[in-house]
Write the structure tokens for this entry.
Amino acid sequence: MMTTPNGSETIQIYRVYIKATPEVIWEAITQPEWTVQYGYAPLVDYELRSGGAFKAFANEGMKAFGCPDVISDGEVIESNPPRKLVQTWRMIMTPELAAEAFTRVTYDIEPVRGGVTKLTVTHDVTGAPMWGGVARGESESSGAGGGWSEILSGLKTLLETGHPLPFQSGPA
Amino acid sequence: MDDNLVFKALADPTRRLLLDLLFERESRTLTELESHVAMTRIGVMKHLRLLEAAGLVVTRRSGREKLHFLNPIPIRLIHDRWIDKYTERRTSALVNLKTNLEAK
């Protein structure tokens, strides 16, 4: 997979431009009412302070597929609303994923112009090759979703049109 | 992000090769990318700039090095907006055909 020349660090970067304010994007990332409406549609629970806990819960659809209640955990490293959120993030849906290292996700939210905001997600998946593969969308054909591409395109559509993407796999 | 820039960026074989290289393994330096392309450094830089303008490549500094990453989101958005629209129609046409044939 993707390794930097020093051979140890593995980073993925995703960027999307959204016609929405940084405040709205911040809410859409950190509040469960929003997160159930795009991407994998989990219910997130953030303690938005440095050292605060992060958890993501399965929605009803995921539970029907046999997902455990808590699908991700981690810790908030930096919470600077509405511009920057840094957290660790581990997937614990399966024992194999749970055994991987905690990854690190950084959200940079930057207003550009004309009401457009640039959202950059930097995901350091060092030590978590499976989570890294899911994040990259490598397992989309086997039903694990399109990773960050699906999450961020879903977020853009939701915020710009007020409706989720028609084919997202969220809860009923 | 402007769709025209994305389509234009994708319309060139060298730029598609650069994207394939970044898909294979991310965070590559210019020197590394250059070694895979039969082209001058300046030429590769030009292509990378175009890819960056289209949002398909994102760069990040790591010490003295500038690393290049593939950003797949613009392609995903084109997929969501265009391709999915047409494949969906084709799928439903097949479903209709099946329903009609089975009704006979």
Summary: Chain A has one domain: 11-161. The domain at 11-161 of chain A is CATH 3.30.530.20 (Alpha-D-Glucose-1,6-Bisphosphate; Chain A, domain 4). The interface with chain B takes residues 1-5, 9-17, 120, 122, 137, 146, 148-150, 152-153, 156-157, 165, 167 of chain A (CB under 8 Å).
